[in-house]
Design brief:
The chain has 4 domains: 54-184, Rossmann fold, CATH 3.40.50.300; 190-268, Orthogonal Bundle (Helicase, Ruva Protein, domain 3), CATH 1.10.8.60; 272-359, Zinc Finger, Delta Prime, domain 3, CATH 1.20.272.10; 383-454, post-AAA+ oligomerization domain-like, CATH 1.10.3710. Helix 10 crosses helix 11 (215-225) and helix 16 runs antiparallel to helix 17 (326-340). Strand 2, helix 5 (110-127) and strand 3 form a beta-alpha-beta unit. The N and C termini lie far apart (62 Å). It has 20 helices and 7 strands. The model is unreliable at 1-34 and 263-270 (pLDDT under 50). With 461 residues, it is an alpha/beta fold. The longest helix has 18 residues, at 110-127.
Amino acid sequence: MTTGEPEGLFDTEAGAAPEPAAPQAPPAAAGPGAGQPLAVRMRPRALDEVVGQGHLLGAGTPIRQLVDRDVPMSLVLWGPPGTGKTTLATVVSHVTSRRFVEISAVSDGVKRVRAEIDLAKRELGMTGRQTVLFVDEVHRFNKAQQDALLPAVENRWVSFIGATTENPFFSVISPLLSRSLLLTLEPLGEEALREVIHRALADERGLGGAVALDQAAEDHLVRLAGGDARRALTYLEAAALVVEDGAVIDTGVLEKAVDRAAVRYDREGDQHYDVVSAFIKSIRGSDVDAALHYLARMIEAGEDPRFIARRLIVHASEDIGMADPTALQTAVAAAQAVEFVGLPEARINLAQAVIHLSLAPKSNAVITAVDGALGDVRKGLAGPVPGHLRDAHYKGAAKIGHGQGYKYAHDHPGGVVRQQYAPDTVDGREYYRPTRYGAESRFTEVLARIRSVLRGTADRR
């Protein structure tokens, strides 16, 4: 059993609207048959009810400043599902005097964003009342949509809170991220999960003592939750719904309930990240049977087939690349088939692509190469283009030395000639390192010969 401080807290279900901004608690709703999901009913109403994330909730922390002192600020909350991003935003809505607005990046666009910002400006100007603008799954906004938030954040017309499950350094635009404080949430520890489960069993807002959970089932539920309290409460509620009041939920009941809850959970979209992660890792690991299982699971849960196809296209270059160049062609063809044919028939095209990619030789040399080059550019290693490579087509270019000394590759044997192409800052860097797997193996010798000509070492022994 893990000891020490709890490591997390929990979110609401994706798409669930937060409680209205008001100091009082929402009406109690006890019992497994209550209208709202258990995870929503058990949502903390104050910071003191939040389980875990002690590194974010201590005295003087940004969240405390925002809640206790109404200090205007902008936050980006980054963490896996079920760690408390929506919970923290909802607590703000309960305990501050600010107007609270939630926007979902899944269903709302720039029009809604601008309308809410305009309303926040009017509210601030007329009454002095500030607005908390919570954007759930902000990573799903494109650059233009995120740009629309910048004036409001820059001028503090709103206190912006963005929630994301994806790395914000890749999914949130730099201007927005630089104007916000990034807070990282961690998965729940074992003790924190047990506390969440115990509260849900006893609290009148939850199951109100209607059922009990034996120790073995509790241990199993903690393992199944994997650090996600929302998942734990979803599974617990599913189990409570299939037993009589006063019954004790054992491991057998829990396992049967989880089978149904897991599919329902994925269909809601909350856990599709877990499934698609296992899907891609199974293809990467060449386990075609596991990959087909996860494909079937996503299709059965109602996942958008275009999303599946997009992931296959990315995987074809990221994990296969030049080891089998036809993998990308197959993935793109499957995506086109999805558009032309649609489900259910397109399941066959997707399955063909999954089988091809699973059994193909693997190489991550392509992504390693491009990320290596990007890393150097981001470090500032982007020196001037060598003079002989600069554009010499316009009038006067020759007078400033552009193009002088350039060697036309087609005039030389093999179409390769000794010449510097990269800027001085990165000359000699080797980003692409082909593996010995599949078709890529033949590029190892070819590339070595080319580099030896370019660097003038071809005839050296």
